[in-house]
Amino acid sequence: MTPASKEARDRLKAAMRRLATGERAALEEIYRATSAKLFGICLRILKDEKEAEDALQDVYINLWRRADRYDPERASPISWLATFARNRAVDRLRVGKVRKGSVGEEQAAPLADTAPLADSMMIDAEREARVHVCLEKLDENPREAIRTAFFEGRTYAEIAEDEGVPLGTMKSWVRRGLQKLKTCMERGE
Amino acid sequence: MNDEATPDDILAAEYALGLLEGEQLLAARGREASDPGFAAEVAQWQARLAPLLDTIDPQTPREEVWQQIERELGQSGDAAEIISLSTRLRRWKIAAGAAAAAAVAAISVIVLSPSQVPPPAGQQAPLAASIPIGDTQLRLAVTYLPDRRELLVSASGLAADGVHDHELWLVPQTEGTPLLSLGVIAPGEERRLQLDEVVAQEFADGSALLLTREPLGGKPADAEAGPVVAEGRMQII
């Protein structure tokens, strides 16, 4: 994948600022630049195209209504938006709106067109490596549990059940893993 | 491992990952809303993990999704007034000092200069808010009937935990006025409250409501309000 050009990121940042002042046109610009990335995230977590569309809609409507939540001084806009989308999708899982297991990931993925503009890929390359390297250093059990939580939006109880281990065991694996992950990340921060 | 002993940085990571559920999730949400240090830990973990999202392939959504967003925003007549809401919320420090606490307790004696009082005209339509409670499917239903100055608070389905009460607050329209208590929630009940005129005047379309977790009996007069566990907004129905 291509790292975001600085120009693309600056443009997005400027659009986020205009959004915070209530400029509607800024929302469409942000949508055009980011919706493919955010839709990919919603689809990955929700595994259902209709649900992912609803989540995506929810993301941009909330972005418009609460535009001042984004602080341009603190986060890259695309990372912030991606996290926002992931969290909204996970929230949908939690309130049980999703028809569980209705469509597998493999079936859900090809439904949409996968040829976004280079601009909309917007990847923060400079930070990309660190979390991957640090995750790889963890033992398999905590690593897979953390990945499952992150990418599938699953809770401790669900992951423990899937793996057939007691909840307490799963919690200690993950907590030790998170501690190691933090130590490793801090070396790079 | 004992849940009580989870250090904050790890709790923040668990919350950022979405591993928590139930009471623990609600508690972490409350912390995030009320404790800037904890909120910063959560944000830092989110930033650390965000590059993982770059491994997910982008997928172009159907054009209808954008059209639907436009329709939705067009209908609800959103404006900058709503955008400014959370800025205002942040500015409203929940009453800390004794004077502010006393003002909240004695709602009926808050004195407003006439120029600050918003005109009641055009606000006679009933207002309602539906406040989601944590990750549950439960909602607190709040309805305000301006012509009767009555507030209906329906907490059906909610159960008391025997340790906490939850208190409902109105963020006033008038700048510089402390949050106004709308009372402690009675779990499982529907309550009808007659509002004092001074409180009634602060209700408007878009008014924000906050729910805080308090000791049994509600916020003690000499204490800060507890963590915000839920929020909602009154809208004309």
Summarize this structure as a short list of keywords or feature phrases.
A: mainly alpha, Rna Polymerase Sigma Factor, Chain: A, Arc Repressor Mutant, subunit A, 10 helices, 72% helix, B: 237 residues, alpha+beta, 4-stranded antiparallel beta sheet, 8 helices, 9 strands
- Give the overall shape of chain A: globular
**Total helical elements of chain A:** 10
Which class do the helix and strand fractions of chain A yield? mainly alpha
- Our estimate of the beta-strand percent of chain B is 15-25%
Name the helicity range of chain B: 25-40%
**Spatial arrangement of strands, main beta sheet of chain B:** 6-3-2-1-9
The tally of helices of chain B reads: 8
Helical content of chain A, roughly? over 70%
Rg result of chain A: 18 Å
Radius of gyration of chain B: 20 Å
Separation, N- and C-terminal Cα atoms of chain A = 23 Å
CATH architecture name of the largest domain in chain A: Orthogonal Bundle
The largest β sheet of chain A comes out as: none
Provide the CATH top-level class of the largest domain in chain A.
Mainly Alpha
Relative strand content of chain A: under 5%
Average pLDDT of chain B: 74
Which sheet architecture does the biggest sheet of chain B show? 5 strands, antiparallel
Summarize the structure.
The complex is a heterodimer of chains A (189) and B (237). With 189 residues, chain A is an all-alpha fold. In chain A, 72% of the residues lie in helices and 0% in strands.
Please write out the topology:
The complex is a heterodimer of chains A (189) and B (237).
Chain A lengths: L5 H15 L3 H23 L2 H17 L11 H18 L10 H4 L9 H4 L3 H12 L3 H13 L3 H8 L3 H22 L1
Chain B lengths: L7 H10 L4 H13 L1 H14 L13 H14 L3 H4 L1 H7 L6 H8 L21 E6 L6 E7 L4 E5 L9 E7 L9 E5 L5 E5 L2 H4 L7 E8 L12 E6 L1 E2 L1
Antiparallel strand pairs in B: 1-2, 1-9, 2-3, 3-6, 4-5, 4-7, 7-8
Helix pairs in contact in B: 1-3, 2-3
Detailed description of the structure:
The complex is a heterodimer of chains A (189) and B (237). Chain A has two domains: 123 residues, Orthogonal Bundle (Rna Polymerase Sigma Factor, Chain: A), CATH 1.10.1740.10; 65 residues, Arc Repressor Mutant, subunit A (Orthogonal Bundle), CATH 1.10.10.10. Chain A is globular, with a radius of gyration of 18 Å. Chain A has 189 residues and is an all-alpha fold. Chain A is built from ten helices and no strands. Chain B folds into two domains: 53 residues, no CATH class; 147 residues, no CATH class. Chain B is 31% helix and 22% strand. The interface between A and B is large, with 78 and 49 residues.
